[in-house]
Specification:
about 475 residues; alpha/beta; seven-stranded mixed β-sheet; globular
Length: about 475
């Protein structure tokens, strides 16, 4: 772990194993934290906030965050290899994650000295203004699919605004976050400002319910998000939640089908579709169905599986438990009448047998309202549902409890805007799904996908509180 500026084992001495999902074997022992370790990390963070971190001239935080971003870029290969071992993703994807992490610190370094208040006119004899002040200690509970990237997404704005941080990575994958804390200290960030406590659910629960924290950011499942909200409520602590998605990718017959198919296939290759924003729910206009499925099946069939360090197209899922979960969804789908166009099973190649590899899977004829169509699978599975009209497409897109991202493919701007304004979704992406520079775009969900916004300058609202100051300088 990393507490008060230094590496440390848990106070109990307990550990757990980090597993390489490509071979199903342990490659490291990790400290298993408990409540006493959380107490120590929170106490260190409190000392840091009381000894000047929040009051530091913002320009000094700017320099530190920029130095940290530079160190991340210098250590790209080291961090990417660690992430690839921990999560299983191809090395080049892990390198992209390191670049994104550095980008978060660069972006929020750029706004750390621009957290402005406002002036409110009250008339002659009065001056009234607002201050944006840090909340104090931000607890960051980080998922296993993009540990370094998603940790940086929350930690960067928290530090930029003058908060201290206690991060708790997922037990499945979090070694890169410990390394991030090392580099933060090397960048000059004072002891206690950034702490990391590793462990399982109990460690996370101890952090979420700790009376010494002032804010929680959590990315993960809906049930865990609900539990964290309940814990936060006992201490009246604000929460930012990103709770997954079932993102629809709406493809109209007039779209560039080749381009849409290429993007859809790349969905599976990106971290084996273990991505909250993954557009794994394909909605196809019936007139485009046969051609699009043909294009997509050809691309999916060419995806090359392998160990992340060998830089394949797609790696394994993160754990044996996750593998069986995904395979269970595929089985449930076949019972409901879905047909596998490609894939649909655990990978059979001998060189993959020890790892948690699932064939890239395309399931057609998925029924509206079925488990497969409604629940987040979090694995390399694309589902296909057809629609006849614009109105039906919107109804299907809005027909799940989630609302994180929606993709729209059409050459008709009017049609695209109709969908964009009608869907209950935090982001809408038209004729493309990812773009360089997206760190500046506010990100968050509707409905059970959560609330609050990460990324962009809007993220600072979640890490600050507003104080109003009124001065009467006129006569008594």
């Amino acid at each position: 772990m990393f507490i008060d500026g230094q590496r440390t084992w848990s106070r109990s001495g307990a550990t757990f194993e980090a597993i390489d999902p490509a071979v199903g074997q342990a490659f490291a022992n990790v400290a298993l934290g408990d409540k006493s370790d959380v107490d120590a990390a929170v106490a260190a963070a409190r000392r840091a906030t009381e000894h000047g971190w929040a009051g530091l001239p913002p320009v000094r935080r700017v320099r530190m965050l920029n130095r940290l971003a530079g160190l991340l870029r210098e250590r790209t290969r080291e961090l990417a290899e660690l992430e690839s071992l921990d999560v299983g993703k191809p090395l080049r994807q892990a390198e992209d994650d390191v670049a994104a992490a550095a980008g978060y610190f660069e972006f929020f370094a750029g706004v750390a000295d621009k957290v402005f208040g406002s002036s409110i006119p009250l008339g002659q004899g009065f001056v009234d203004f607002t201050l944006r002040e840090p909340l104090g200690i931000s607890a960051q509970i980080v998922p296993w699919n993009y540990p370094l990237r998603l940790a940086s997404r929350g930690i960067a704005p928290a530090l930029a605004a003058g908060n201290a941080v206690v991060a708790k990575p997922a037990a499945e994958a979090g070694l890169s976050i410990i390394r991030l804390a090392d580099l933060a200290a090397e960048a000059g960030i004072p002891a206690g400002v950034f702490n990391v406590v590793t462990g399982g659910r109990e460690t996370g629960a101890a952090l979420a319910s700790h009376p010494g924290i002032n804010h929680i950011t959590f990315t993960g499942s809906v049930p865990t998000g609900i539990a964290i909200m309940k814990a936060a409520a006992d201490n009246v602590v604000p929460v930012t939640l990103e709770l997954g998605g079932k993102s629809p990718n709406v493809v109209f017959a007039d779209a560039d089908l080749e381009r849409a198919a290429a993007t859809s296939a790349s969905t599976l290759m990106q971290n084996a579709a273990q991505t909250c924003t993954a557009p794994t729910r394909l909605l196809l206009e019936r007139a485009a169905h046969d051609r699009f499925v043909e294009l997509l099946a050809k691309r999916i069939g060419a995806i090359r599986l392998g160990r992340g360090l060998d830089n394949p197209d797609m790696g394994p899922v993160v754990s044996e438990r996750q593998m069986h979960r995904v395979l269970g969804y595929i089985t449930a789908g076949s019972r409901d009448g879905a047909t596998a166009v490609t894939g649909g099973a655990r990978a059979q190649a001998a060189e993959l047998a020890a790892g948690y590899f699932i064939e890239p899977t395309l399931l057609d004829r998925v029924k509206r309202g079925s488990v497969l169509e409604q629940e987040e699978i979090f694995g390399p599975v694309l589902t296909v549902t057809t629609f006849e009209s614009l109105e039906e497409a919107i109804a299907i897109a809005n027909g799940t409890p989630y609302g994180l991202v929606t993709g729209v493919w059409t050459k008709d701007l009017s049609k695209a805007m109709t969908v964009a304004t009608a869907v209950k979704s935090g982001q809408v992406r038209v004729n493309g799904y990812s773009v360089e520079g997206s760190i500046g775009l506010p990100f968050g969900g509707y409905k059970r996908s959560g609330f609050g916004r990460e990324q962009g300058v809007e993220a600072l609202a979640g890490y600050t509180q507003v104080k109003n100051v009124m001065i009467n300088y006129g006569p008594a």
